[in-house]
Amino acid sequence: MSFLWHKQFIVPWLVLLSIATHLVVGFGLQLDWENWPLYLAIVIGGYRLLADSLQSLRRGSFALDYIAILAIATGVWTENYLVASVVVLMMTGGNALENYAQAKAKNSLTALRNRLPNQVQLLDKTGHTKATAIEKVVLGSLILLRKGEVVPLDGTLESASGRFDEASLTGEAYPVEKQTGDLVRSGTVNLGEAVSIRTTSTNLDSTYSHIVKLVQEAETAKTPFIQLADRLSGSFTLLTIVLASLTYFFSGDMNRVLAVLVIATPCPLILATPIALIGGMNAAARERIIFKKLAALEKLARVKQLVFDKTGTITFGQPLLEKVEIKASGWTRQQVLATLGALEKNSLHPFAKAVMTVLGQEKIKPKSATEVKEQLGVGLVGLVDGQEFQVKGSRNATEAQISLYQDKSEIATLTFRDEIKPDSLRVIAKLQALGLKLAVFTGDKLATAQALVAKLPGEIELRASLSPQDKQQGIVDMRQQGDAVAMIGDGINDAPALASADVGLVFSHQEHSAASEAADVVLLSGNFGGVLRVILIAKHTMKIAKQSIYVGLGLSMGGMILAAFGFLTPLAGAIGQEAIDLLVIFNALRARKG
Question: Of 202, 435, 457, 501, which is least packed with CB atoms within 10 Å of its CB?
Fold first, then answer.
């Protein structure tokens, strides 16, 4: 309950303190100014309630605060100041919970914008560099890009060759080799040595800036969170006013009217949903699942369509050694791996990392190598035991390979695949059992994607060779069909789609990655089972929230009828409403168990 000390709860605490002061002064010390603390409570809490209701009225929408304002005004008119103060406490406490939840939302564009450098290194005709603000770079400029740097602007490669990580844009699991004249897109990463690029875009119209713009537009277009309370407020408000009017018409007793209004003050509607959602968020957090927006939990419970990125989501997103095929006599698997390890141990290439992982797992000691050189676009060459070996890579539609050569004779071929996570098949089957429709959107080639989807259970829609814009448009099309859509991804290429979906979920080991910022829900581990778990938590949480709302409303309706017939005094009504609130709160807190 540490959130109760947040600044949003200052007003409720002041109101509670004022009521407590009144009780001490009035009933304990019996001083003449016993009502002044209640006046203070009504003024402190009432002004914000009135301002919010007037704003709602100007927008032409109903608000449940109208009943509370009417109850407070009636309490003041009939000099039932304690009753009016209790209503103020209920309403300010409920509003503080809602405002606190909204304050938890973060700016989804921060990490996207911060990923690109503010300055680039311009190359002049003499080969010297000059740091220049990215906004000032004009078309046709020649820029230097060092190893490990993010490409700041779209351009064509001027160097003989280069190797780039395009996973952030396409979801491609493997590095892409490029030659002179090939297009290099902003947002990708230079994995090789320093290269020069001739810009073909400015900062405003680059590929990466366009992705940022798409996310910004999608964020602006998001439907605001509409609580269950909002959908019931109009009819409940009218029903309360009619019942209060009938009570006065038949009894002429303003105390009965006040009792009706007080017991009708719908705190179950205001409190149940945010408390249950916060409880659900806590349950998810225990499993390293972070809801960045409270509204996402309510929306996730209504989702009918799940769209998955492939790489890094259903699959590991990194090459894994599948098999070693020996093609020369006299060689064993252990000898091949030991020789490869000698050449690959200092390389940053994903295949090299995969080979070294296998060496560690199988406890194979790599041999020693000398004069190792990395030839971009070709592979590695070096001396092992005084003999020259080469490592070359190749790739077809469904798999990637590297081959070990000695004197141009092929020794062995190693095949790599981006493997499906162990729990993907089980989780997908259970998601389908929940009645959810599943789709895979990927930037990979169609043949690669089909090979993966064929291994998955049930019926799954597939769309391949998609750009970030294509993924986003696919999400928009699905939403227009009427289904609530959740997008699950792990890269910047997924950011526009994540922001356009009703709920965006992202796998991330880095809390501040751009994809994490664009999403509503962050799964901090790579466990695919987190998708199933978070959906079950969302459904369980909203079930509890609805129980609290409808039980609370039912009890309030019963109390209103008793008050109308004179069986409840205003103060008894206020106490009764507080009892209902406590029941609602304790029930809503069950959502914390997940």
Answer: 435
